[in-house]
Amino acid sequence: MDRLILFLFILFFIGFFYSFIVQRFTKSRIIMLIPTILGIILIIYNSTTSNPSESSGLEALNIFIKELIITTIIIGNISGLIFFILHRK
């Protein structure tokens, strides 16, 4: 469990630092939100194509962890954008 929390913490900071780096080089909000847009598309795709009731073994847990990882990157990206936009003003 500790490894999962550490892994999610690292992914959060990857999304956060992506926002920092992109914010330094460009002012385009679309480029800043690319991880968030791709993450939302991946979550929708995973949610619609997976059926955990028909899965065997730990496949439902695998689906949950994939969505948790994607959500962590999205939250890190949005947190970075909010932090750096408010910090700039």
Strand content: under 5%
Number of separate structural domains: 1
Average pLDDT, rounded to a whole number, is: 86
Radius of gyration: 15 Å
Number of strands: 0
User: Total number of helical segments?
Assistant: 4
Largest beta-sheet details: none
Helix/strand structural class: mainly alpha
Taking pLDDT < 50 over at least 5 consecutive residues as the criterion, the unreliable ranges are: none
User: What is the approximate shape?
Assistant: elongated
Element-by-element helix/strand order: HHHH
C-alpha termini separation: 39 Å
- Give helix % range: over 70%
Explain what this protein looks like in three dimensions.
- The protein has 89 residues and is mainly α.
- The protein has one domain (2-88).
- It contains four helices and no strands.
- It has helices at 2-25, 29-32, 34-49, 59-88.
- Helix 1 (2-25) runs parallel beside helix 4 (59-88) and helix 3 (34-49) runs antiparallel to helix 4 (59-88).
- The longest helix is centred in the C-terminal third of the chain and has 30 residues, at 59-88.
- It is elongated.
- The protein starts with a helix and ends with a helix.
- The mean pLDDT is 86.
Which tags fit this structure?
single chain; 89 residues; mainly alpha; 83% helix; 0% strand; elongated
